[in-house]
Every structure is written in structure tokens, then in C-alpha cells.
Amino acid sequence: MESPAYVLEFExxxxxxxxxxxxxxxxxxxxxxDLASDIRSIERxxxxxxxxxxxxxxxxxKVQIARHPKRPxxxxxxxxxxxxxxxxxxxxxxxxxxxxxxxxxxxxxxxVMVVAQQKGRDPRERILRNFGMPQPEGYRKALRLMRMxxxxxxxxxxxxxxxxxxxxxxSEARHVSxxxxxxxxxxxxxxxxxxxxxxxxxxxGGALGIGVTDRVLIFENxxxxxxxxxxxxAILWKDSAAASTAAEALKVSANHLxxxxxxxxxxxxxxGGAHNDPAQAAAxxxxxxxxxxxxxxxxxxxxxxDTRYERFRHLGVFEEAGATRS
Length: 326
Fold this sequence. Notes:
Oligomer: single chain
Number of domains: 2
Number of helices: 14
CATH superfamily of the largest domain: 2-enoyl-CoA Hydratase, Chain A, domain 1
CATH topology of the largest domain: 2-enoyl-CoA Hydratase, Chain A, domain 1
CATH class of the largest domain: Alpha Beta
């Protein structure tokens, strides 16, 4: 038996309207009564309600969509926009972390290196992927693949989707913070073009560990933040229930991040989120990726490195407006 559709709290009015629409259609079939006008009326109401809900989402509601269990994950996008993906395994030091996948592929006919954080769909895969939380060997594997890409001058495309790096004792014992720090340094100096895409959650250093790239893109309903809204709320308000307030204060949503210069472009999603039409979301990603790849491929290596340095060097710079004199 198919499990019921996952519905977010703010989507419940839509679920009720959809239930009414299905009942009307079924009644029309069973009784052979023409209910076309009633059906059209409900359809118009659904369309209006969808527009009202999804064009006025709060940052916290966008975080909820970013975590939607049906949302496309990295491998879903790779299978739709790339050809001949060949996964490569292991960090050559300790293990193969399945929370980070990577390998060569062809994107619009050109060879690229893909590095991605991958969550799981069912309980078994979630455990296998460690719920998308990489351990140090995952970041070391990612760096190994990026260095391989540098050797063969392959553009690197990374897909960010993690609540954060795994904070367990084993991860700390194998120096997860050091692994992330090394990636930040080495990616800043990587002598090949690179683009990262936040496809879902972009949590803390766990996300940044594969995110120091020439261009940073983000889906409309994804988020990118130094801490989860719940974690921020627990620290500042001593109550994780204040997550919605924290999400607003953190400016985690895509439009805020673009305004602040943290991301370079926001990729539009279908109404209700990418999970409502994965094919359309993938088509939008393909278009934006190709555009930015075309921009940075033409740069010589030194110009590429200088531009990347300047990009990250100016993050967080702000000016205070002087007091006006009467």
C-alpha cells in the first residue's frame, strides 16, 4: 500500500482542496452527473491558493521544503543532467564514506568531475548514507577527486545537501574539522573551474567543505547557513521552537543569500518545490550550470584563482552609514 503524501503544515489547505476535487471527480464518474462547473471552481481555487502560499513563503517554510523527504537529491539531478556517471570510491586512507559520492561524468558532452552529498530515501539507505552527514574520510575522498580533476583539467561540479558534517566521537577522532579546513584551503587554490549547487540543505562547515568554488548556485527553496535554525534558536532563545524566528534572523533563504552576495544565482523551482516536478527543476539546473560554466571556462588559470580569491575575500564586508547632520 502506498504511503500517504507528505504534507507540510502550511500546505494543509491545499490538501483539503485536493481532497474535495478528487471526491467531486469520483462522484461525477459514479453518478454520471455533470459536475464540470464545480470541478472547475475547485481547480481555480487550488490555483489561487497555490499562488498565495508559494509566492509568500517565510524563510522557515523554505527550510521545511528544503528538507522535504521527496525532494530530489544529488544523484537524482546527476542522472537527469549528466551522462555516463562513473562513481569512484574511497579516500585511500581510511574508508569510503557513502554520504559523499563522486566520479566522472559528461555534462552536455563535456567531461566533468562530480562531487556530491547524498541523503537516503528509505531507512536502509539513510543509514548507509549516514543521513547525508559526511565524516572526515568523505571530505578526503572529495579532495582526492578534485585533485584528479585538476590534473586532467576537468571542471568540478559539487552538489551540497547536508544538515552538517557528522559530529560523532569517531568523526572527531579522525579529525573532521581538520579535513574540512584542508578542503577549504585546497579548493581555494584548485587550478580548474568549479561550481557548487545547494540543492537542499546547506548546513554549516559540512556544506562549506565542498563549497569553496568559483560560482555558488542555490535552488529557490534551499538554504545555506552557518547553523541550523533549530541550533541557533537553542543557543540564542534557549528554545528550539523559536526556529522560525532564527531562520528569519539568519537570512538563510536563497533570495537573502543572493542579496548578500553569498550565492551567484538562484535557480527557480516549480510551484511547491522541486519535488513537485523534478524534471523541470533539473532542466532549470542544466541551463544555469551551462551558463556559468561557459563564463568561467574562458578564464586563464591565474585569472580564475584571482577571481575566486576576491569572491570569498569580500564576503561579510559591510559599510556603516554615517550619521546624517542637521
